[in-house]
Amino acid sequence: MEQSQRTEINTLGEFGLIERLAQKVTHYHPETVKGIADDAAVMAIGDQWLVTSTDFLLEGVHFDLTYMPLKHLGYKAVAVNISDIAAMNAVPKQITVSIALSNRFSLEAVEELYEGIRFACQNYKVDLVGGDTTSSRTGLVISITALGLTNAQEITYRSTAQKGDILCCTGDLGAAYLGLQVLEREKQTYLANPNMQPELTGKDYLVGRQLKPEARMDIIYELQTMGLKPTAMIDISDGLASEVLHLCKQSQLGAVVYEDKLPIEQVAYDTAINDFNIVPTVCALNGGEDYELLFTIRQEDYEKIKLHADITTVGYMTEKEKGAKLATRGESLVPLEAQGWNHFST
Amino acid sequence: MEQSQRTEINTLGEFGLIERLAQKVTHYHPETVKGIADDAAVMAIGDQWLVTSTDFLLEGVHFDLTYMPLKHLGYKAVAVNISDIAAMNAVPKQITVSIALSNRFSLEAVEELYEGIRFACQNYKVDLVGGDTTSSRTGLVISITALGLTNAQEITYRSTAQKGDILCCTGDLGAAYLGLQVLEREKQTYLANPNMQPELTGKDYLVGRQLKPEARMDIIYELQTMGLKPTAMIDISDGLASEVLHLCKQSQLGAVVYEDKLPIEQVAYDTAINDFNIVPTVCALNGGEDYELLFTIRQEDYEKIKLHADITTVGYMTEKEKGAKLATRGESLVPLEAQGWNHFST
């Protein structure tokens, strides 16, 4: 009888699945301040709050070793987890790294991967404290859990933005996605003719954003130094649109994002149009893997960031009823839609 | 040039690989009390100590869905992690569960898996607080991280046993391994003739030990109640021999384990001999997946546990130079050897 119904996962998508599974969860401990529904879980341990985030990276789904050097992969695997800790306004302390390997990987290959992992640990000052190591029947699988500390005063959630707050984002958007398109294109060229050299001239920035993203801990420390606590924060891993929608949903607000404010590098803009015939705005809104921070600040804090070279104000929060909107260059308001990275749809 | 050398992972094995990778690790935080080298990592957060353990479970490597119901798999995945928390003498608080699924899994299948996960969370009183969900090109992959709390006084390591301490183990050994042999045998019979019904009569205990192991949190709470703190502790996941060797290595001691003291259930004993022609001692020493606890106590604490129905004294710790030995029924001393579960050797 139980087997009589079959619902495909891709009818729900990743967020739908998580929401469905989270519904039935019970918490037993008063220490659990936050479970599923933010960038990290939260446990109150005395007056320090522990934040925990975990990510899965599977070969063939999240990375392609044809163009992803193992050292970069190790670095990136750590960075994307630290990015979640940053989004909680916490300081990373420890990570565990589990890997499953098929026997096509040699010890030298594993050491290259760990060189990248250790380099990231050094950069973000985080201690590699454990993990699990096993064999895999197929490709490489990496699972990383990052632990960070903050406290009740400093922690930032997705759910605490207020109407009128200014939406800020760090860095620039869409370049990592375009870097992936460039790498995929060169891979196809190479597969068609293995004597062809990859043509990456002028695309270094894009390729670098894809292969070696950085978690924006620098911004977290800067905001702390200037005494500016965001009212809400999330990291941009699935594209700005998806993250704005998360902030809106959890804070029960709407938002307006201005198309002409989106921070897009010139090379990203040009490559989107000339190489791939994509609208640059779409890359910025739905590209994914930027690992920048999206946060909201109170209007009275605007002065503190308005001259910051690496923070852009992209919009503001409105009431829920107004929904999440993109104010286009053509001065019309269109619904902001998340494309996200639905791995289940492929 | 870097590619010129190729060392196969299986020349090192899992422990060798971990040791090799751990060598180069640097810690940056004074909060990190313990990294790689115990059942869990340790972070001091004020006067509470956080312990973190993580495990990978891969279809085709760690489990076979032909005979492992998804609900049991979910339960077991949690239990084996809680077992590591127990081995640190800590109380489990939170877990994160990441799953990678191929599209052969329906929503109903995932919900069955999570039913088992939630049931284990309820039994062990642990909060499911997050995870990651993604697609997989092949089988099911589960990665669980468990977080527990203890303190500087209560925590137990592998490295703190003393010469003369008594080696104790909980429950019985070898049954989970024999349960796996029974299930594998019935699978082969079924594959040869799908009309055959599996013959599990009288093997319920063995199969149950394989499919639904329990973490021994009950023993942890009991020891705390009786005011008995083990001098060292480890969970028995790779077979008693492997764990005794870990205690010896980390505590820089030797040990004697008495063959005739090994706790083996009658049905395990009989099945080993009659069904599989294996020496029962080998199942107890090298079987794996018992998820019992192995711990050492001071001799003066012996009175406290000597009548305990579920704790067996199996030997004692000696000086390092004497090595780890098995005192056989034939009254000879032979080196204790770990067979373990070297997934890389297959």
- How many beta-strand segments of chain A? 14
Shape of chain A: globular
pLDDT < 50 runs, ≥5 residues of chain A: 340-346
Mean pLDDT of chain A: 92
- Order of helices and strands of chain A, N to C? HEEEHEHEEEEHHHEHEHHEHEEE
Structural class of chain A: alpha+beta
> Could you give the distance between the termini of chain A?
29 Å
Q: Into how many domains do the coordinates of chain A divide?
A: 2
Q: Write out the CATH superfamily name of the largest domain in chain A.
A: PurM-like C-terminal domain
Helix content of chain A: 25-40%
**Largest Cβ-defined interface:** A-B, 85 and 85 residues
Question: Would you tell me which CATH topology of the largest domain in chain A applies?
Answer: Phosphoribosyl-aminoimidazole Synthetase, Chain A, domain 2
Determine and state the CATH class of the largest domain in chain A.
Answer: Alpha Beta
CATH architecture of the largest domain in chain A: Alpha-Beta Complex
Rg value of chain A: 20 Å
The main β sheet of chain A shows up as:
7 strands, mixed
Count the DSSP helices of chain A.
10
Strand content of chain A: 15-25%
